[in-house]
Structures are given as structure tokens and as C-alpha cells.
């Protein structure tokens, strides 16, 4: 038994070594227009370096977008990018579309339509658009200042100009709503037929937005709720209890009928579920009790496999998921039943992958992973002398080699 454990451990370590650490930071630094502006922001406490935690990422060409939610006061810019042409391992992040759009208004100052108050995750679609879910809230853990309504904000990446801002309706939300993720369902030849799916982790629902109709509707289901038996987590030596519901979303291939399968899971759960986008995109069906049995339980990933983000590779039909309590990344080939035996370990690192928060597959089939030790940031304090934030990259085919996810 001991020999078997050693062999398995060596396989995990060897496989994890394939991850390439691209960037790392002790503290995040921003590209300021001038040192004077930076010093003014520090003196006014509009910029508190230790309060800027990177969380979400997405790649478009030579830009790697990195989000910094306003968990605490003093976040310089919530939506940013890194130039992938840099050779700096700890580069500055550049506000997008610019610093002004990411600066909190003062004394009743009017907000421009392209403003971003606080975003957790973003999505780059096949039509060169950047979709941003803006919560509109600053200092979430403190004074909870609501500067604007929750909204989808969409930019044209070729021009860096705002295309559309869509504010969620009152009927899209509950008093407990919190939107920290999104995914976009679109085909390159049909950009006007896009749908965004936005999970509500606090209100246990999904908001569907139709680009063509400029309309949204809220979907409810029991599977969107958290599992009360899976809410006790320990990450990075920190024990905490969460009640986060539906969170991770991943879209499968387009089927012959033009629809996809949406794979989803609550963060506080070890189960994976699915539903056809044919259900979600039909407003009357999606909001009707008759759709209840159209949702499917895919299976259980096994003990301590709570996951935040997920991403689907269209070539191999493999879903990648973060593994919060295991300091790692895992995979599941959707052509196989979801069982612990078919749930593969892609990478595991007890230092570098403490709280893998987000992951994305880019257009070149690179898997990008961001880890940020968020529980330590939220409940204690990060050590400024250690590397706290990391971004990794690995080719999808390399990631699933020698795992149950390989075909």
C-alpha cells in the first residue's frame, strides 16, 4: 500500500511540473500615468497595495486580462491586462480600457458608460468582444458602496471601445444576489445571436441575456443551490464556511440542433450538473416549472473536490476544473461517466496552487490558471515577502496526458 502511494504521489508531482509559471507577484503593481498620480492615490488611500488581489483572467491575442475585484478599499483598477510580449515575470498590470474608466467617482461625479467599478471574471468571445460582469460595488467586505447597478459591459477588442452596457433588471436579482462569473454562447458566424449566462452564487439562479433581443430573464432550479454538507473548507491552512451556489459554467460543443450542453456546479458542492442551452435560451421554457426534469445530474467528483471555475476544450471534450481544497487542477472527459475514478488530476502544487481561483482555455488551446491564496487574503493577511499570486500556462493535450481524461 505504501509503495502504491509513493508511485501515485510521484506521478502527480511529475505531471504538475508541466505547468509553466508565466507570472508571479508578491504585491500587484499597476501602470500609472505618472508617479505623481500614483503618490496622490496612495496618500488619499485610493490605492492600498495590499488590498489588490488578482482573481479572474482571459486571453485575447497578446493581451492577458486580469481582474482585481474591490473586495476592500484601495483597489487602483478592477479591469486590467498584461502584455504577453513582456519578459518581466512580475509585470505591471495596465488598466483597461484606461485608468479613468476604472476610477471611482468623487462628489457625485457622473459615471461614463464604459466605467468598471468591480469585476470578478471576464469572457472573451469568438467575435473579438470582451464581456465584463460589473457588480458595481466597492469595498465589498467593508462599507459595501454600490456605485452602479450590476451590469454586463461589452468592449470591442479591436478598437477598445464600449459596444454595450446592459444593466440587470430588478427581476433578474434577489436581495442576496452576487454575480462573480459569466460565460458567452456564440458562434463566429452568428455574432448577433449571442447569449450570456451569468450565475448568481448568492441568489441561486442564472441570468440569461440575449444580445439580439437586448433582454434578460432569471432561471431558477434546485441544482443551483449549495450542498449544506460540503460548505466546510480548508485552504492554505485557513478553515472557513461558505454557502456559494451555482458558480462554474462550461459550454460543450455545438450539436446538430444548434445548441450546446451547459455543464455547471455550485462552488459548495462536489456534484456536476448539466442542461441544454435549448432550455435556457427559450425564456418561457426556462422560467417554467415544466423545465425541472430537463436538467441532469452528471455525477460526483469525489471527496473535497469543490471547484470554482471550469472550462471546456472543444477538441477533446474535456472539462477542466479548479480544485480549491487540493491545491490543484482536475479534469473530466464528458464522454465518460463522472465518477472519482474518471476524475483526473492535471496538476497539484501545495505552494503555487493555493486557491486556484480561475482558469480559461484560449483560442490556441492553452490552459491558463490563476492562483491567489484568497482565503488568506479574506480572513487573515498575506505575507508581502512571499509570492502570493501566480499565473500558469499549459497546453491542453499536455495537461490531460496520462490522466483518465485522455481519449
UniProtKB/TrEMBL annotation:
Q: Where in the cell is it found?
A: Secreted
User: Which Pfam families has this protein been placed in?
Assistant: MRJP (PF03022)
- Protein origin, superkingdom: Eukaryota
Give the CC-aspect GO terms. Answer: extracellular region
UniProt-listed InterPro entries: 6-blade_b-propeller_TolB-like, MRJP/yellow-related
Keyword annotations of the record: Secreted, Signal
Question: Is Signal among this UniProt entry's keywords?
Answer: yes
Task: Write out the similarity annotation.
Answer: Belongs to the major royal jelly protein family.
Protein's recorded name: Protein yellow
What taxonomic ancestry is recorded?
Eukaryota, Metazoa, Ecdysozoa, Arthropoda, Hexapoda
Amino acid at each position: 500500500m505504501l509503495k502504491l502511494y509513493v508511485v501515485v504521489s510521484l506521478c502527480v508531482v511529475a505531471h504538475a511540473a508541466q505547468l509553466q509559471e508565466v507570472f508571479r507577484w508578491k504585491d500587484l503593481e499597476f501602470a500609472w500615468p505618472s508617479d505623481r498620480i500614483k503618490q496622490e492615490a496612495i496618500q488619499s488611500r485610493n490605492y492600498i497595495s495590499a488590498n489588490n488581489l488578482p482573481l479572474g483572467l482571459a486571453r485575447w491575442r497578446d493581451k492577458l486580462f486580469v481582474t482585481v475585484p474591490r473586495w476592500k478599499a484601495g483597489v487602483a483598477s478592477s479591469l486590467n491586462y498584461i502584455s504577453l510580449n513582456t519578459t518581466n515575470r512580475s509585470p505591471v498590470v495596465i488598466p483597461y480600457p484606461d485608468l479613468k474608466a476604472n476610477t471611482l467617482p468623487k462628489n457625485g461625479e457622473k459615471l461614463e458608460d464604459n466605467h468598471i467599478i468591480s469585476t470578478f471574471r471576464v469572457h472573451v468571445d469568438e467575435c473579438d468582444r470582451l464581456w465584463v460582469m460589473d457588480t458595481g460595488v466597492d469595498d465589498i467586505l467593508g462599507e459595501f458602496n454600490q456605485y452602479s447597478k450590476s451590469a454586463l459591459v461589452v468592449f470591442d477588442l479591436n478598437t477598445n471601445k464600449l459596444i454595450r452596457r446592459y444593466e440587470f433588471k430588478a427581476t433578474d436579482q434577489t436581495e442576496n444576489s452576487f454575480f462573480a462569473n459569466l460565460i458567452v454562447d456564440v458562434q463566429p458566424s452568428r455574432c448577433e445571436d449571442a447569449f450570456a449566462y451569468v450565475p448568481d452564487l448568492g441568489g441561486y439562479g442564472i441570468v440569461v441575456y440575449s444580445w439580439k433581443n437586448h433582454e434578460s430573464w432569471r432561471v431558477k432550479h434546485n441544482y443551483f443551490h449549495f450542498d449544506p454538507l460540503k460548505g466546510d473548507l480548508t485552504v492554505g491552512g485557513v478553515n472557513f464556511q461558505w454557502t456559494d451556489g451555482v458558480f462554474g459554467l462550461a459550454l460543450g460543443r455545438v450539436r446538430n440542433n444548434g445548441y450546446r450542453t451547459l455543464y455547471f456546479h455550485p462552488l459548495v458542492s462536489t456534484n456536476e450538473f448539466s442542461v441544454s442551452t435549448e432550455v435556457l435560451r427559450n425564456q418561457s421554457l426556462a422560467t417554467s416549472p415544466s423545465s425541472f426534469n430537463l436538467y441532469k445530474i452528471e455525477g460526483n467528483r469525489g471527496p473535497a473536490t469543490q471547484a470554482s471555475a471550469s472550462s471546456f476544450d472543444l477538441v477533446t471534450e474535456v472539462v477542466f476544473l479548479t480544485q480549491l481544497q487540493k491545491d490543484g487542477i482536475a479534469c473530466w472527459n464528458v464522454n465518460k461517466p463522472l465518477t472519482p475514478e474518471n476524475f483526473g488530476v492535471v496538476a497539484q502544487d501545495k505552494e503555487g496552487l493555493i486557491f486556484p481561483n480561475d482558469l480559461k482555455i484560449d483560442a490556441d488551446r492553452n490552459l491558463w490558471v490563476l492562483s491567489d491564496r484568497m482565503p488568506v487574503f479574506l480572513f487573515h493577511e498575506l505575507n508581502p515577502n512571499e509570492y502570493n499570486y501566480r499565473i500558469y500556462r499549459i497546453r491542453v493535450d499536455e495537461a490531460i496526458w496520462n490522466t483518465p481524461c485522455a481519449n
